[in-house]
Amino acid sequence: MKAPEDPWVTQERDISGVSSIAAGLHDLLAIWEQSGDGPHKVLGMGAPPRLGGWLKTLGALPTGFEVNVSRSKSTYLEIVSREVNKGWAVQRTAALLGGPRRNCGGWRRR
């Protein structure tokens, strides 16, 4: 009998159209530390108290883990490489499309 799919994995797949796997934060950090590499972005999904614990863990990362951490929703914790820059991506997309950046992906300055 197949184990039920993690509801957070299901939610991410439904939103993004990309299949994900559920993994523990400590397991991921150990893999990245051992390999000396990591992803450009991680989306942590879970109950707000659990994500608060992740924030504490991420705040204690050793030097070398250069990431920005933000909560985009009470149940989402986004961990992004400092090399990732959405502003640059929007500007580049506008240049490639030959139009103003305000037309790219609904982005607008508030």
Structural commentary:
The protein contains four helices and three strands, in the order H-H-E-H-E-E-H. By secondary structure, the protein is an alpha+beta fold. The chain has a three-stranded antiparallel beta sheet, with helices on one face. The longest helix is centred in the middle third of the chain and has 12 residues. It starts with 6 loop residues before the first helix and ends in a 13-residue tail after the last helix.
Give a brief outline of the structure.
With 110 residues, the protein is an alpha+beta fold.
Q: For the largest beta sheet, what order do the strands appear in spatially? A: 1-3-2
| Biggest β-sheet description | 3 strands, antiparallel
- Tally the beta strands: 3
Which radius of gyration do the C-alpha atoms yield?
A: 17 Å
**Shape category:** globular
What pattern of helices and strands is seen along the backbone? HHEHEEH
What is the percent of helical residues?
40-55%
Structural class by secondary-structure content: alpha+beta
Q: Write down the overall mean pLDDT.
A: 76
Proportion of residues in β-strands: 15-25%
User: Whole-Å distance between the termini?
Assistant: 51 Å
Low-confidence stretches: none
Q: How many helical elements?
A: 4
